[in-house]
């Protein structure tokens, strides 16, 4: 039997053994020449996969794969094609095992502890990145810091509906302490309108986090008539600006305070004289 026939027989036997190899080895096998020499580029591809997993936390398995890498390099200098294919199969199977997820090991307390440990690591890395960014770009970090501090201050001092009722009551008491002839008509009109809205339960509060809006609804929340429950008859967002009664920002209701300016001065009184 001539050498060519022996080579064909060896290739046929190796091809039959290669049918059991994992599909990840197939592109590597196609780059093996007829003489059974493993190319340098194929070794570099396999070594790159091993190095990628070496960077992972599973160091012990990465070291085991590194041993197989040395076997793969030595097989490139000699040996049968069958041995080289077998070495490639072992290496690829181990890479596949590393890549496939494993079932959770240990008790529930260990898994719970591992969860909080990983969570702590994530937040620690995020904090380190923030500190590093602040050191590298101090001006940008200062602007962001002031913005966050200002937003937090506005949120903490966002007035609620209770504070509006209290301010309205205080302003009403101020008006009662002034003679009727010297009261500002605009102040009286606004305070009486807000009192009627509170009594009819039509005053609503809408908050955007950093500020609040008091607006006037069509009817009370307790009303169950068709006109009050029909979605098509309810106030629409596009008409909300027409219903705004006040705007609250930094513990202050701005429209109410503006209406109470010169509440003890009646301009009509001086006009009649």
From TrEMBL:
GO BP, one annotated term: protein insertion into mitochondrial inner membrane
Q: Which InterPro entries match?
A: TIMM29 (IPR019322)
Region described as Disordered: spans on this chain: 1-20
Give the matching Pfam families. Tim29
Renumbered to this chain, the Polar residues biased-composition regions fall at 1-19
Cellular component per GO, a single term: TIM22 mitochondrial import inner membrane insertion complex
PANTHER family per UniProt: MITOCHONDRIAL IMPORT INNER MEMBRANE TRANSLOCASE SUBUNIT TIM29
**What is this protein's name?**
Uncharacterized protein
Origin species, per record, is Aphidius gifuensis
């Amino acid at each position: 039997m001539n050498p060519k026939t022996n080579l064909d027989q060896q290739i046929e036997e190796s091809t039959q053994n290669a049918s059991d190899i994992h599909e990840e080895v197939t592109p590597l096998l196609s780059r093996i020449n007829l003489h059974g020499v493993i190319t340098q580029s194929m070794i570099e591809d396999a070594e790159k996969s091993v190095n990628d997993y070496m960077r992972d936390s599973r160091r012990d398995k990465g070291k085991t794969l590194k041993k197989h890498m040395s076997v793969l390099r030595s097989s490139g200098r000699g040996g049968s094609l069958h041995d080289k294919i077998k070495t490639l199969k072992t290496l690829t199977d181990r890479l596949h095992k590393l890549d496939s997820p494993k079932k959770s090991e240990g008790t529930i307390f260990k898994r719970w502890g591992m969860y909080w440990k990983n969570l702590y690591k994530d937040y620690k890395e995020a904090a380190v990145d923030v500190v590093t960014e602040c050191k590298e770009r101090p001006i940008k970090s200062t602007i962001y810091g002031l913005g966050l501090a200002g937003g937090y201050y506005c949120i903490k001092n966002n007035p609620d509906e209770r504070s509006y009722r209290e301010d309205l009551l205080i302003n009403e008491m101020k008006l009662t302490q002034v003679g009727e002839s010297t009261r500002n008509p605009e102040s009286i009109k606004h305070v009486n309108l807000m009192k009627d809205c509170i009594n009819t339960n039509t005053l609503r509060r809408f908050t955007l986090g950093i500020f609040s809006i008091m607006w006037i609804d069509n009817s009370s929340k307790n009303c169950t008539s068709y006109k009050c429950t029909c979605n098509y008859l309810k106030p629409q967002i596009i008409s909300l600006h027409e219903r705004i009664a006040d705007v609250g920002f930094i513990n202050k209701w701005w429209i109410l305070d503006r209406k109470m300016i010169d509440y003890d001065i009646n301009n009509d009184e001086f006009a009649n004289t």
